[in-house]
Amino acid sequence: MAQVTAQDALSYSLKREQAQFAEEAERLAEQAAYIAANPPSDGRTVSGDITRLMQEAAFLLKRAVTIEAGLDAVEMMNAETSTTEQ
Q: Distance from first CA to last CA of the chain, Å, rounded?
């Protein structure tokens, strides 16, 4: 039976995070497109829409930072593995 390493587990988790990121980014783009297509007008405000867009962008930024840190960690694990195998 193959043993799962920390690197394997992190790589798997990162793939899931990347898929979630893609879904959230798509939703964010849809929200932005909706705001662009429906600008403020008489009887229509967009401040709430923009506030929600900014909140979602902040969550997306947090996910991006998590993914990037994870990718760096996997890269360091790969480098460590390659130096110990030599």
A: 25
pTM score of the predicted model: 0.83
Burial class (CB in 10 A: 0-12, 13-18, 19+), 60: middle
Residue 71, helix vs strand vs coil: helix
User: pLDDT by residue (tens digit) across 8-37?
Assistant: 999 999 999 999 999 999 999 999 999 999
Helix axes 6-37, 47-84, angle to 10 degrees: 160
The span from the CA of 35 to the CA of 47, in Å, is 10
Cα–Cα dist 48/34, whole Å: 13
